[in-house]
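Why do we care about 3D structure at all? Because function follows from shape, and shape follows, mostly, from sequence. That is the central idea of this module. The next example makes it concrete: a single protein chain, its amino acid sequence, and then its structure expressed as tokens.
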Amino acid sequence: WLKEVSLARVSAAPSLPRALCRAAEAKAKMTGAGNHVIPNVHFRKVNGMMHGRMNRVMMRTWFDQAARKKRRSQNRKAKAARLAPRPAAGLLRPAVRPPTQRYSMRLRLGRGFTLEELKEAKIPAKLAPTIGISVDHRRRNRCTESLQANVNRLKLYRSKLLIFPKKSGKKGVKKGDTPKSELQNVAQNTLKEIIPVERPALRVKARAITSEEKEASAYKKMKKARTDKKYEGAKRKKAEGQKDDK
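And the structure:
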């Protein structure tokens, strides 16, 4: 009887260490061989079961995406019908470059045309808002290229502009209004920019450097421009003094 018990004990004892060995082997596979941190993977944190507004109870849904798209389309059509025959986009706006070096290569619509641009295009600043042109008295023109581009934009708009009389009848027609014969079946402008902004191609093809470009120095040009600006007043004063002496 004692022999049977002892044999049973001997046969049952090694089963526990084997289980531990298997667990150790499984752990080694998960973390690799060596002394590592015990894995504590948060498998229960399924998408959304976090704290705050990402909690599954507070998660935002977007089941009305198709309905919102339809509503936006209907609102655009209603606005266009309300503004007809005027452009659906509202007022004409200039093409400007965003500030800072990071975004200055882009072209976008600005708030309004400067007083200088309106003057070059021969459009009075008070008349501009009444014919669908936005005015911004705070913006300044920093270069001739942007000034000329917006002046051309204004001239193109003015050439295509049709002005409807405010009232019906002969008394309602004012100077500058479009003749009645040209106002039949006028299509509404539904473009976002009214007149599309011409954006230059950013990619430039590789070419050989010319001899003129090799000889030219941007540094020397900039330095001379700074020097001329610095001594402009002194040179003018000297020239005026010489005239007085004569």
